[in-house]
Design brief:
Oligomer: single chain
Radius of gyration: 21 Å
Largest sheet: 7 strands, mixed
Number of strands: 12
Number of helices: 13
Strand content: 5-15%
Structural class: alpha/beta
Bound molecules: 4'-deoxy-4'-aminopyridoxal-5'-phosphate, glutamic acid
Length: 398
Amino acid sequence: MENYLSQRLQNMEESQTIAMNEKTKDLQEQGLDIVNLTAGEPDFFTPDAIKAAAKAAVDNNFSFYTPVAGYMDLRKAIAGKLQRENNLTYTPEQIVVTNGAKHALANAITSLIDPNDEAIIPAPYWVSYSELVKLAGGSNVIVPTSIDSNFKMTTAQLEAAITPRTKLLILCSPSNPSGAVYSKAELQALAEVVAKHKRLFVLSDEIYEHINFVGKHESMAQFESIKDRVIIINGVSKAYAMTGYRIGYSATSLGLAKACTKLQGQFTSNASSIAQKASVAALTLDNTPTQEMTKAFLRRRNLVMEWLQQMPGLRCTVPDGAFYAFPDVSAFFGKSDGTTTLKNDMDVCLYLLEKALVASVPGSAFGAPSCIRLSYATSDENLLKAMKSMKAALAKLV
Ligand code: PMP
Ligand code: GLU
């Protein structure tokens, strides 16, 4: 049959993070003893108090449609969180609750991007940004960063990328996949450039806010001169180990919140009522469990870094946040274990999968083909096993 799929859909890539995770799970189900370092989700269970709130919501018959933008108590809890933790003032009407942070990104990108608009995305970037921009008909202007700049974009790079067609800058700090965390001064310098370009909006993905090993979270929305043009994206998936609940949100100007609500009203209506009630608990109860999880991620980061730094040929910055290591593996391109010669990042991932039974994601999925991504959101025991076999497998390459 002739290809019946829309051109827009055909132009869009599948999510490589999801694809690699699902492939790895299939291989594990077939009995292969693989350590899965592809997964971008906490391995912890949702804290008990949050689970109790979900159960209570079922028992109390929160089973009807909710307002499209989310229950008012949840939007108030989000506005309260933004005030308390980030010193940012938003009214509940400026918050839109979505089906995961990914959906909040999709709402904002679709609401802002027209065909011919450009979105500036520093690479490495999270897989879905570029594809959502393409789906909206826009083009991506990818700004490469490297291990030598700690994977951060400079103001000079931003200035150089801006054209009359630029509509959006997409930032993620703490970053998936590099773990880079922009300092307040670095964000301020970028904000000053944005302030000069009145058509430019900033999509600020802050989903890893709590998994930050270097101090207080800094939001791009703190700079008053651009606050109206900043879209904060956040959610409960990572901080509260609630990936399957699918609750995210955006905080924006009122106009953009109304646009996102209009779009969502046609696409999905509201996010799950039960998950919304659980999220109220997540955002208002004591967040000791989040702090405990972050401590575990820090311990695991240190464990992984200690091993990666001992592997000749690998170059890796110390990730300041999120739960990924993003080593540069380009020194292995052209090397062989006697049977296979590795040409690129995908070959390195396949080699590690076959010879070390370690699953990772190629950096090209994130616009950085000299690297691979290793998620350390798994047990210390798994990490130790993975690091030992990875070290042995890489040592065989000459
Ligand atoms: N942004 C980034 C950078 C992510 O890593 C993820 C994880 N999937 C998301 C957004 C989406 O989060 P959610 O699961 O809440 O849709
Ligand atoms: N954000 C996670 C990751 O980067 C989950 C997968 C996805 O949503 O693409 O692996």
